[in-house]
Amino acid sequence: MIQIGAGSGYYTAILAHLVGPGGCVHAYEIDPHLAALARDNLKDIAHVDVRERSGIASDLPVADVVYVCAGAAQPAAEWLDALRPGGRLVFPLAPEGMLGGMLMITRPVDGAIWPAKFLSRAQFIGCAGLQDAEAGRRLGEAFARGWEGVQSLRREGAPDETCWFAGEGWWLSTAPAPMPAESVRPHADITQA
User: Fold this and answer.
1) Closest Cα to residue 28, out of 49, 47, 58?
2) Per-residue pLDDT for the chain (193 aa), expressed as one digit of tens each?
3) In what order do the strands lie in the sheet with 113-122?
4) Among 6, 59, 73, 126, which one has the highest count of C-beta atoms within 10 angstroms of its own C-beta?
5) CB 76: neighbour CB atoms within 10 A?
């Protein structure tokens, strides 16, 4: 599991408990002071690895789950690329300083259409490097129109009439993704494959 935005390690400890000693939590924290606190707070949990650096990097480990604790106006391509097939990215798609939504995206075995759905509304501190004022304004407008109908993330093709929101190189659609062989159960534990 990858956690982006570990802070002082509170949620990292919970995630470590959820994955158990057979799993591993790679926790990224860009702020040196918070990373030091997390390292100290989590020193007794052997299956936690605190990394003092940005979680937007091309060398992220491959994971079943990427859990982000910072609001972003877009999913980082690096997070999506780090997922194994069937893996899930859970992050707050949220303009800085505004209420957004906790979005779960599941990587398909193949293809550019990924199942996606909002789990709830959410507001977090902004993720460094993934905020944009214009995208934030447009996201605010999209959330004002409703958010419950989002069913897929598209990484190719031009947005069509099902587009809820479009970013550069990706868009969210109200049309469903092709059904995976095994779908994620409603209210499933995101830490379990």
Assistant:
1) 49
2) 999 999 999 999 999 999 999 999 999 999 999 999 999 999 999 999 999 999 998 899 999 999 999 888 899 999 999 999 999 999 999 987 888 999 999 999 998 999 999 999 988 887 777 777 888 889 989 999 989 999 999 999 999 999 999 998 999 999 999 875 555 554 455 555 4
3) 48-51, 25-28, 2-4, 63-68, 83-93, 100-106, 113-122, 152-154, 170-173, 163-167
4) 6
5) 22
Asked whether 131 and 74 are in contact (CB, 8 A), the reply is no
- Listed as own residue / partner, the contacts of 59-64 with beta carbons closer than 8 Å and 24 or more positions apart are 60/2, 60/26, 61/2, 61/26, 63/1, 63/2, 63/26, 63/87, 64/1, 64/88, 64/191, 64/193
* DSSP code of residue 144: H
Residue 64 contacts residue 37 (beta carbons within 8 Å): no
The answer to whether 173 and 162 have CB atoms below 8 angstroms apart is yes
SS3 103: strand
Look at residues 102, 96, 166 and name the one whose alpha carbon lies nearest to residue 132: 96
Paired sense of beta strands 152-154 and 170-173, if any:
antiparallel
pTM of the model: 0.88
